Amino acid sequence: MRLSSLDADAAAAVRVIAHFQALLGGGAVDPEVLVRSTAALAGCPAGLARPAEAPDRTGRAVRFGPDGAELPCGGPPGSAGSSGPVRAAGPESGVRSLAPAGCVWLERTGGPGPLDDLVLEWMALAAGMSPPRPARPPHVADPALVETVLSEREAVEDRVRALRLLGLSPERPLRVVAVSGGRDADAGVEAVALLARGVPGATVRIAAMDALAAVLVQPAEGGAGTAGELARGLSLAAAERVRGRVPGRTGGAAPRAGDGECGGPGDGTRSPVRGARFGVGGGAAPVRAHVSWAEARTALRFAGAGGPGETVVDHDALGPLALLAEVPADRLRADPGVRALTALAARDGGGSSIAALDAFCRTGSLRRAAAELHLHHSSVAARLARAQTALGGRLREPDDRLRARLALYAWRLATAADE
Residue 196's pLDDT is what? Predict the structure, then answer.
């Protein structure tokens, strides 16, 4: 009936409808995009005002001219003690209310045009749609599907269906990685990028699982996908971040000793993802992913927050050391070596001494430890001296170094139990 009453402008009316249908073809439209495009279509200024409780939650008014330039507006809806929408600075030739509150309007000089009602009707329809949701990164998965895959209580058929919905093959082995984000809430998302770098061509899916992020990693067909490759890839990405080749650090110089870019002040090292820790589970058939998930959480308890070498722990590489995780935390805390490391960690610069101790125990070389931590070897030697004084013994002796490394593992397990 509307078109029949506008015979002279029927073609223009069809163009108005086609314009808004094309605008809404991808779903809801950003308010600024809607107002700018409507102003250009109508050939006059247009505006939109929504209160803070509206679906887009902008709590402000937007106003654009037909040339696309943003025009000044009086302020957010409900300002100056009014509960109604703000009025435009120019004369309103037509207004259409929005539910539950707010309005859209046109500002045409000389009164409304013959198609302004149609334009306002479609503009109000577009403004009333739910706001567009931020695009979810392709690696981020539905937590319910990931939880089904990792559950041993769900039926095998349900786990296979969840795997297929996640884009994973039920036939090829996968590994599960447990990620603790430390102080950074977004560490899990950044961890996915590092995991993808560690195993090129792998299918990677991540989801939040309580306080942890669970990452499912399935290598490409024919790929080895060993946990060692994954850990090396993460360590390489971490080293590149330190040298400034990975986004997140400007400048190409390595951090100075004591610049505090790691998990604690003055560490002079950097975790792969700002304090994140990674536990890599062993390979498992996809329908037995819960086994790899349990191993990943155990490995995570052994991970530290210092240099790259200690933030990524491979459960397969732990071997019999994984049995330490079964020792009650109270017995671990009572060990003299654990008590010494706890006291050392509480001192100024204690975190950097522990990071140096870990690197030296793993590499067996002062210079290799310094290279891993991106520090001068004299700085590492000074930090090792503090750790050696705290633990007693001589770290150059193999037996004393072994005891120090066992104390480190026990200290991390006891610390993880307190988190």
Answer: 60
Q: Which domain holds residue 333?
A: 327-419
Q: Please tell me whether residues 154 and 303 are part of one structural domain.
A: yes
Higher pLDDT: 39 or 82? It is 39
Instruction: Give me the number of domains the chain comprises.
Output: 3
- Which 8-state DSSP code applies to residue 319? G
d(CA 82, CA 285): 62
Distances (CA, A) of 409 to 276, 402, 406: 17, 11, 5
CA distance 179 to 187: 8
**Shared-domain flag, residues 57 and 206:** no
Give yes or no: residues 119 and 144 share one domain. Answer: no
Q: What is the pLDDT of residues 355-401, one digit of tens each?
A: 889 888 888 888 888 887 888 888 889 999 999 899 888 888 889 88
Range name among 157-161, 208-212, 227-231, 347-351 with the lowest pLDDT average: 227-231
pLDDT at 303 (0 to 100): 84
Which domain-ending residue is among 295, 318, 341? 318
Helices within 323-376 (DSSP H only): 329-334, 336-345, 350-363, 366-373
Element (H, E) at 63: strand 61-64
Domain end call among 262, 288, 318:
318
User: Do residues 107 and 46 lie in contact, with contact meaning Cβ atoms separated by under 8 Å?
Assistant: yes
On whether the CB atoms of residues 36 and 64 are closer than 8 A, the answer is yes
For every residue of 264-314, DSSP letters joined together read STT-----TTTT-EEEEPPPB-GGGHHHHHHHHHHHHHH--SSSHHHHEEE
CA distance 337 to 163: 44
Residue type, 111: G
State the first-to-last Cα distance of the chain, in angstroms, to the nearest integer.
68
Share of the chain above pLDDT 70, in %: 68
What pTM, to 2 d.p., does this model score? 0.57
- What are the residues whose beta carbons fall under 8 Å from the beta carbon of 23, sequence distance 6 or more? 29, 33, 34, 37, 126
Q: Whose CA is closest to 234, among 292, 193, 176, 175?
A: 193
CB atoms within 10 A of CB 271: 29
Residue 233 CB contacts under 8 Å (≥ 6 apart), including other chains: 194, 195, 197, 198, 199
Task: Identify whether the C-beta of residue 237 lies closer than 8 Å to the C-beta of residue 246.
Answer: yes
